[in-house]
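Weekly modeling sync, notes
Attendees: AB, CL, MP (scribe)

Item 1: holo prediction request
CL wants a bound-state model with calcium ion before deciding which constructs to order. AB pointed out that an apo prediction alone won't tell us much about the pocket. Agreed to run with the ligand included and paste results into these notes for async review.

Input as submitted:
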Amino acid sequence: MIDGKLQKLWRWDGDEENPIIRHQGAHGMHTADVDGDGRDEVVLGSVVLDDNGTALWSNGLGHPDKCFVTDIDPERPGLEIFYVYEDWNNDGNGICMADAKTGEIIWGIGKKTLHVGDGMVADILPDVPGLECFGSEDSKGGSNSKYLLSAKGKILATDKDVPGCRNWIFWDADKVRETIVSSGFENGVFDRSNANKLSIVKYKGETLTKTIEGSVMMMADIQGDWREELITILPGEIRIYSTAIPAKDRRVCLMQDPFYRAEVVHRSMGYDQSPVTSYYLGE
Ligand SMILES: [Ca+2]
Ligand SMILES: [Ca+2]
Ligand SMILES: [Ca+2]
């Protein structure tokens, strides 16, 4: 910023890079300090731009529908990135986890994948170390397979035992994340009369709240006690739901984490993702 005006520091065109970096972007970008030098990189998908506007790395795996940057495996130093790839992948890396600093693939699912259209990372199994990683094939690709993996890449569950990827929220007092489900989609059959009723449930566990109405817009810690509020919309109305479950510990407001704050904004870009923190937040 000079004299109150933004100045261009650099421009980037993938075709100027070697190797050329076409077709490596995801549906949304994330800004994170992946190399720990205090300046943010831009995670475009399979390619990461350094803060000086040059490619830091590219894994060459193509177009991920989504990727998640966070400390997935706290036993490894630094951040990791979980990828789900739309591109057909014969080499077992269509669902994979990479080192965020170098792009090195830490593990892949080890199976052929066709079009993995959705994914998520969250601690849903407190007895399994790290964040669990899950992804689902899009039926457009010719498969309905779903996978739940540990932070070490071990397949823990498949298909009907894998939760949905879309809407996850910190709602009760523990650091295991809960999911928001529409009762209109119970048993996989869409009931239009019930489609606006939402419940917050634990994975393979109890229902915590079931009186929520509207369509999910966003989840974010906007009140500041570290659990997240749920923002929904109905015709002519915006609602903010807050948990009524008392916290058991005091934690810094998630919005104090600049990465989480940017992830909340990210929700308005591309495919919607539940925001994650730059640090490990799980049991
Ligand atoms: Ca950096
Ligand atoms: Ca780590
Ligand atoms: Ca929880």
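Recorded for review: DSSP finds one helix and 19 strands in the chain.
Action items: CL to compare against the apo run; MP to circulate these notes.
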